[in-house]
Design goal:
The complex is a heterodimer of chains A (307) and B (240). With 307 residues, chain A is of the alpha+beta class. Chain A contains 6 helices and 15 strands. Chain B is an alpha+beta fold. Chain B has 2 domains: 162 residues, no CATH class; 52 residues. Helices cover 28% and strands 25% of the residues of chain B. Chain B has 5 helices and 14 strands. The chains are: A alpha+beta (307), B alpha+beta (240).
């Protein structure tokens, strides 16, 4: 007796070995960005300024230099003004995907197409932006932590002391590598019978943590980023006050009649869709111009600890 | 000892790879059956990064270490990446970078930038096609899909001592070092009198020993032996 089973249908070409899912999911990655967290200073846009570099200007104003005692009847001598500048050079970043018509037209459900690739550019920009922000950390002259030793509450406190000694304002930010966060959590768990252990707010940091902002510890906003530089076996995060790191952008001037130009809202990315008819190909090109730099050394501390 | 080929070229002794095992012949590689030019012998499964400059700040870049039976301060380093848009590094046409002004800026901030001629940097090919730049004392070991880095600490520390002895970097100023003592003191004070687990107690004790030795270093104005004494001067043969 013949039975029509799956195997028979499969052999006969009436069934598939495997069916692809209706949706293409994004692979797990660190999608968090601190660009809009308030931790960074936005230096401005270089469009139309006549250079690829913005220079932030600083002067010893508003009490940086205190008044002197002047005896009655004597002349007040004039003082020099302390001045400093900090440059932020802007560089070009980009990403391009070439999609053939056959690849696009054979799509199934919510699949890879020109629009999905264009949408993906916004995330690609933030990833590169975070890579650039984190790459600035290794330029801080002050540091806490020890090479080859796991991050601990003590390292966190050392960084905090350094910033307090340098007169930093109260809102501090820490951007740490996930490994550093895990080690810090482990160290906080070992705090017993003291102000750290008894503070209910600190228990938030002991929970399972997601991406980006992970909590507040000792008054410091703690962010997690896997873009923190790796130095051999060490991870390099940082603690800083707003104004330590600044970034600048460059926005390309829009064309009079742009065709196939997409500017995703809230990001400085310019996405252009270009046809190459001879190859039946659509090019999706994302470009942005950005740069980041340490603009005030006294506002930040590198935290370098073991992986 | 029979040397085995190192992924970066050259040779390293077997015992670094096989600590407690007998060296054995490799019988299998974790490569896809489809082949390709990906080989775990010459490429690292990590993202490429950028070349960098080592920078040393005479005020803040010091590390107190125990090296060759002595406690001493040695220089530590920060890195300036050759990455356009980062810390003032500019872009030049056709893909290059220009860090000249960025380095000048760092020097204005008090950093000493170490020239590449000093030979501290090397690069490793990555599977993505780019290069991964690291210092020459970091040795990568690929296990499955992961890279484990081992630092040859003795050689690295020898180099750091040499930089001071050869005058590339000045010896630390004693007045600056008191700041490091303060930091270490705060670290010890914070944990004083705490009810500690044996593991934490060990770390605390190590911090206290470090503090004690830092103070000795300043008192003796130079390296101290692990007993906390001034090391004996090296005997130098006189030419007759």
């Amino acid at each position: 007796m013949a039975t029509i089973d799956f195997s028979a249908l499969n052999t006969g070409g009436l069934r598939l070995d495997a069916m692809i899912e209706n949706e293409v999911r994004a692979l797990l990655h660190d999608a968090a960005s601190i660009r809009n967290s308030g931790a960074l200073l936005f230096g401005g846009d270089i469009a139309g300024v006549g250079s690829d570099t913005l220079t932030l200007r600083y002067a010893g104003l508003d009490g940086y230099e205190a008044m002197n005692t002047v005896s009655d009847g004597s002349e007040i001598t004039s003082s020099n003004l302390t001045m400093e500048t900090a440059p932020i050079a802007v560089g070009r970043i980009g990403l391009r995907y070439d999609l053939t018509d056959l690849a696009a037209l054979t799509k199934l459900g919510n699949d890879i197409d020109v629009f999905r690739l264009s949408e993906s550019m916004a995330g690609a920009f933030e990833a590169r932006f975070m890579e650039m922000i984190c790459a600035t950390f290794t330029g801080f002259s002050s540091s806490a932590g020890t090479s080859g030793v796991d991050m601990s509450v003590d390292d966190f406190m050392d960084a905090l002391y350094l910033l307090e000694i340098a007169d930093n304002p109260s809102q501090l930010f820490a951007v740490l590598h996930p490994r550093q966060i895990a080690d810090l959590q482990s160290s906080i768990r070992n705090e017993t019978a003291n102000a750290i252990a008894f503070n209910p707010a600190h228990h938030e940091l002991l929970k399972s943590l997601g991406q980006g902002f992970v909590g507040d510890f000792m008054g410091v906003q703690v962010h997690k980023s896997s873009y923190c530089p790796i130095n051999g076996a060490d991870r390099e995060g940082a603690m800083f006050s707003a104004g330590a790191i600044a970034y600048a952008l460059g926005t390309p001037v829009p064309l009079a009649a742009p065709s196939g130009e997409i500017r995703p809202a809230g990001t400085p990315v310019l996405v252009e869709v270009e046809r190459d008819s001879a190859f039946s190909l659509t090019k999706v090109v994302g470009t942005a111009y950005t740069g980041a730099a340490i603009v005030e050394q006294a506002r930040g501390v590198l935290i370098s600890t073991d992986a | 000892m029979v040397p085995s080929p190192h992924p970066l070229g050259g040779a390293i002794p077997h015992h670094i790879f096989f600590r407690n095992h007998e060296p054995r012949k490799k019988t299998m590689t974790n490569q896809p059956w489809t082949g390709g030019d990906v080989s775990k012998n010459n490429a690292l499964p990590i993202k490429p990064n950028h070349p960098f400059w080592y920078m040393h700040h005479p005020n803040t870049c010091w590390e107190f270490i125990q090296h060759r039976e002595k406690w001493m301060f040695v220089p530590s380093f920060r890195r300036l990446f050759e990455l356009a848009g980062v810390n003032g590094v500019r872009m030049v046409p056709r893909g290059g970078t220009d860090s000249q002004m960025a380095r000048v800026r760092m020097m204005d901030d008090g950093f000493e930038v170490l020239e590449w001629d000093l030979g501290y940097q090397t690069r490793h090919r990555t599977r993505n096609g780019g290069w991964y730049y690291s210092n020459v004392w970091e040795l990568p070991k690929v296990i499955g899909n992961r890279v484990v880095w081992k630092r040859d600490m003795d050689t690295y520390n020898d180099w750091r001592v040499e930089l001071m002895e050869q005058g590339v970097i000045d010896f630390p100023d004693m007045d600056i070092l008191s700041f490091f003592v303060d930091m270490q003191e705060k670290r010890c004070q914070r944990n004083e009198g705490k009810n500690m687990t044996p593991r934490i107690r060990k770390l605390y004790d190590a911090d206290c020993v470090k503090l004690e030795m830092m103070k000795k270093y300043i008192e003796l104005e130079g390296p101290v032996t692990i007993e906390g004494k001034k090391p004996k001067a090296k005997k130098v043969k006189r030419d007759v």
